[in-house]
Design a protein that fits this description.
The protein is of the alpha/beta class and 397 residues long. It is 50% helix and 13% strand. The strands form 2 sheets. The protein has a 7-stranded mixed β-sheet, with helices on both faces. The protein has a two-stranded antiparallel sheet with strand order 7-8. α6 packs parallel to α12, α6 (162-177) packs parallel to α14 and α14 (344-364) runs antiparallel to α15.
């Protein structure tokens, strides 16, 4: 069978994946403060960038982010292939008096959208990693952006997504041990974890969007280094990212000119040294020799592929290899030369990796109750999500 697209998967669901149910101006103000922190404090996008900007947003879903762009003065073209989302978008723009900012709402997918217009800013968040090959959507952006225009994406980064992939694999393993309704199994495993973090959507939406989503799989994850290189090949230069992709520790005389390939090499090395930080969500910057970075990367690739396979099948040998892999990763986090915030981040990361090791060990023993005890009571597990979603802004040269 042909793998459905992300929007076809969403179209089959009764829930919109990111619907936040904004009702009042106070609701929208709170949501905007969160988005302002993302765009401003983390991605260094001043609000004036959006004033009267022609902004194209692919995949706005129910339209909360579009509302914030509209409030900042952008003229919006929204391309949302899931027709179920269109009433929510129209309702939001009427409710908050922003209809004049919505110039077009189109039902099309990204690769099928056609227009002769060019835009100042393109936004595509959440789903973009499922559009493959990556070069296809980068080419679309290049065609639709004016010179100097910016695009912003959020995506599942390969190393950063390991912890979330573990949540999916443990959920699948427990379902096979003790079959039952998806929502009840998910709640029994992850409700304490879900309630420990701020969120703007319902738990059921997260279950559908992560645990049941066929696209939250290793074959779709996109490495930061890969995105950086592919964007550069098509004439895009990094503007900003969260977590940072720039080698912000590099120091040299500010008047010394630097070539793009020199900056790119510094950034590539920085990304390689950030692997453990991406995985755990804590500052664990590798300062060891380059060989150690290569070894860590190799271990992570093996772990990701192994955990991903456990989503589909319960394989004792694979479970044992996964347990050993997390033990080795924990030892590396404990012993490698790292730049960290004292011992606190290192200790939390090691505790997280050890808890994952034990959760998969319980699954290997057929102990679903033991898995639940870890996922609902282990503080290191509950407090850590890794860094699955990366944000990046690139400029068209």
């Amino acid at each position: 069978m042909t793998q459905p697209t992300m929007y076809e998967f969403y179209g089959q669901q009764s829930l919109l994946p990111t619907y936040a149910g904004l009702r009042t101006e106070e609701d929208l103000e709170r949501y905007q403060r969160m988005r302002d922190d993302v765009c401003g404090a983390k991605l260094y996008l001043p609000k004036r960038i959006f004033e009267n900007a022609q902004l194209l947003q692919f995949g706005p879903d129910s339209g909360e982010d579009a509302l914030v762009f509209a409030r900042s003065g952008a003229k919006l073209t929204l391309v949302e292939p899931n027709l179920k989302a269109h009433p929510a978008i129209h309702d939001y723009f009427r409710r908050f008096g922003l209809e004049s900012q919505l110039e077009e709402l189109s039902q099309a997918d990204m690769l099928g959208y056609r227009t002769d217009r060019v835009f100042d800013f393109i936004d595509a968040e959440g789903f973009i990693y499922t559009v493959q090959p990556t070069s296809a959507w980068l080419d679309v952006f290049h065609r639709l952006l004016r010179p100097g225009g910016l695009f912003m994406v959020t995506y599942y980064e390969r190393f950063g997504a390991l912890i979330e992939l573990c949540l999916k694999a443990l959920y699948a393993l427990v379902k096979r041990l003790e079959p039952g309704p998806a929502k009840e199994i998910a709640a029994a495993l992850y409700m304490p974890k879900w309630e420990a973090v701020p969120h703007t959507r319902r738990f059921e939406s997260w279950v559908m969007d992560v645990l049941e989503n066929p696209f939250v799989r290793a074959r779709y994850f996109l490495g930061a280094t890969e995105l950086y290189a592919l964007a550069a090949e098509r004439g895009f230069e990094l503007y900003s990212a969260w977590p940072t992709y720039r080698d912000s520790l590099a120091v040299y005389w500010h008047k010394r000119p630097t070539k793009l390939d020199e900056r790119s090499e510094l950034d590539r090395q920085h990304l390689a040294r950030s692997a453990l930080s991406f995985v755990t969500g804590y500052k664990l910057y590798l300062t060891a020799e380059a060989d150690a970075c290569t070894e860590v990367a190799s271990l992570l690739h093996s772990l990701i592929d192994g955990v991903d396979a456990l989503v589909d099948r319960t394989d004792p040998a694979l479970l044992a290899a996964t347990v050993d892999g997390f033990e080795e990763l924990a030892q590396r986090a404990k012993s490698e030369a790292l730049l960290a915030d004292g011992d606190h981040d290192r200790a939390r990361a090691v505790a997280l990796l050890k808890s994952l090791r034990e959760a998969f060990a319980c699954a290997g023993r057929g102990d679903a109750r033991g898995v639940r005890e870890i996922t609902t009571a282990d503080r290191a597990f509950i407090e850590s999500w890794g860094m699955p979603n990366h944000l990046a802004v690139f400029a068209k040269s």
